[in-house]
Amino acid sequence: METVRLLLALAAHGGLEVHHMDVKSAFLNGDLREQVYVYQPPGQGAQTEQGSVWASSGTTAWNARLDQEQIELGFRRSVLDHDSFLLVGVYVGDLIICGPNVGGINKFKQQMMKSFKMSDLDLLSYCLSIKVEQKKREIAISQSAYTGMILKMARMIGCNSCTTPMEPRLQLTKETAGAPVDTTKYRSIIGSLRYLVNTRPDIAFVVGLVSRFMEYE
């Protein structure tokens, strides 16, 4: 997520377009240098007498294959910025591409589509539950749909809003006389809020505070 935000910040500062591509079945494109065996977990279908075995290239092999492909396309580690650079952020099968030359971006996308089955999603508008709005020298990010999902999960749809994320001087403790809290659901909601902080830094302190109560002695 930090890579995505960094790319968007650089693009906004430089007035660059940000494009989006998606690799279909990214893990299957990796080249394994060793044999990998994974036994099918219980409840996932009938086992053979020897046990069902699956093989997957995994993230490491896919990243190595993608690195090699970009090197063959002429990419190298940058030591200086210049007018023909391309920035490519990779999150599994999602590629976020930006640079000052739209022609260079399109050429890169065409070259990648020759090597992998990919979808060209054009200008980046949505990635990793984050909505991206691109304007001239301005990029806005938000997570309104993701926020709605959290409210629905917490059964807070329709609740009254407030101007501050937490009541001032509220003291939180592990000891309570109320009904026991569903710890699994609590952790799930807090984990979702931690991801929401990416676009809502105003709730970072409160989320950090309630995160202290995710573990119990």
TrEMBL record:
One Pfam family from the record: RVT_2
Domain Reverse transcriptase Ty1/copia-type: 2-167
Protein's recorded name: Reverse transcriptase Ty1/copia-type domain-containing protein
